[in-house]
Amino acid sequence: MPKLITEHRLNIILALILLIGPLVAHYAEEPFLVTLATRATILALAGVGLNIALGLGGLVSFGHAAFFGLGGYAVGILASHHQTYQPLMTAPFVINGTNQMLILWMVAIIVSGIAALLIGALSLRTSGVYFIMITLAFAQMIYYFAISWPAYGGEDGLSIYVRNAFPGINTLRPLDFFLLCYAVLIVVLIAQWRMTGARFGVALQAVRQNEGRVAALGLSPYRIRLAAFVISGMVTGLAGALYADLNRFVSPTMLSWHLSGEIMVFIILGGVARLFGPVVGACLFVLFEHLFGSFTNHWQFFLGAALLAVVLFARGGFIGLVAGRVEHD
Amino acid sequence: MTDPVLALSGLSKSFGALKVTDGVDLDLKPGEIHALIGPNGAGKSSLIKLVAGELPADAGAIRFAGRDIGELDQVARARLGLTRTFQVSSLVPEFSARGNVALAAQARRRSVFGFFRQVATDPDLTGEAMDALERVGLADRAGTRVSELSHGEKRLLEIAMALAMKPRIFLMDEPMAGLGQEGSVRLIGFLDKLRHEAPILLIEHDMDAVFQLADRISVLVAGRIIARGNAHEIRSHPEVRAAYLGEDGA
Lengths: 329, 250
What we know:
The structure holds 2 protein chains of 2 kinds.
Chain A: H1 7-27, H2 31-56, H3 65-84, H4 101-123, H5 128-148, E1 158-159, H6 174-197, H7 199-209, H8 211-216, H9 221-247, E2 249-250, H10 257-270, H11 277-293, H12 299-313, H13 317-323
Antiparallel strand pairs in A: 1-2
Chain B: E1 6-15, E2 18-28, E3 33-37, H1 44-52, E4 59-64, E5 67-68, H2 74-80, E6 82-85, H3 97-108, H4 123-136, H5 151-164, E7 169-173, H6 180-194, E8 200-203, H7 207-213, E9 216-221, E10 224-229, H8 231-236, H9 238-245
Parallel strand pairs in B: 3-8, 3-9, 6-7, 7-8
Antiparallel strand pairs in B: 1-2, 1-4, 4-5, 9-10
């Protein structure tokens, strides 16, 4: 495949576009476009999370909405207790609600990490189609639980009346909130970039390519995959936390299998296992939704056509098309 | 007499009615090459899989370095220093040759949870990888992707990965397969010296290699050891000539 530009340079250009676009929109007084970019940024982060499992580890999880939704509900539930001044629990110790994003994010990461540990520990005993189905089944269990649990809105969802707070930033302003989400995305991407070339990332990619060889070398493929699945779930959970604050609303939709599918679509559009694959994919997704969605309800037809084109003609997704194949040591 | 590093006793394995390993007793002493020969389908590779822990044995014991390892899984046995090479090269295809050996060096350190320091610029891992590649004569191909290496180069890379594991014994499943005349001769010379680093249980079809290298040869036919001895004894063993080498012998 021809290589127009190194992946590293392409990534920097993409990161700049995602930063400059909303800045321009802000000064052109188009706050809606800033919010749209924020949505793309957060969905990208959800995709980055899945990409660690799916791209680097070859673990086709069809249940990542579970972590996205759990992150969202962690924020929604704690924020609702902050609004009503009712403690979340009083025994054996008191847990109060909070509106501090830093705490909410930590909680979202921990909750989704624990969920990923439990789901992963069971699901990773299977592989292939069974793994896809069992991750889907776990996500659906959580989805139906959220629907049938009236305490936090059930099917109607749960509103967050005022966006949660971050020290030194007015999160109510669209641009401030965008920059916060953007900074989180960039920090996670840098961490993933380092991880990919570090011992864990190398072992994970080796497990994807030749599990038997890794076991013969005395490293446990199961443990490596489980750790990757947990990290992956935590990142997607963090995205869910941001998404809850973007919409100031959480609902079971965040847990639905449609969302699991959409996150996967980001990765396939942008490029599986490519650092910026889900970023490109999520931006394209949001762009399609906005552009075609404005004149037809059937905008997903165009998304489907694009997806088909990528799968048939550009297996490496957008990044693969422009920057060629993955370089490894 | 030195104690064996590896000792199999009464090792058995069946797939349904087919006995692939039938009461095998076999040991490997420090500094020796013990060759396992036999016709196709005799159960040689299955025996390696039983020892490496890829297959569970039905009966019998495996003692390694003085302890019973029958209950340990493949990963645990590899960690004890039981390193195998594969009959069909088993490598990480998207990694470079150096990347594959560095992975073995990393595995020997049992190091997985490093998230920041880059393997490619880690002098410990890449240095060891280059040493191993140099020893098998692949240093100039270090940066080449495995999928672009020739068949013979992949065979050598298998050996390099095993070297980087610094094992206590080598289990080698047909290392000469597909190496060609010149490559085989070089590898024979290499294995001849390697036995002093760690003993080798060697499965090999190349009889010249076996008769040159092996201190002892065991002949496996239909899962059973039918003969054992040095090269001279095996060459002249009537049952072996009948079952394996062909009536006119070697």
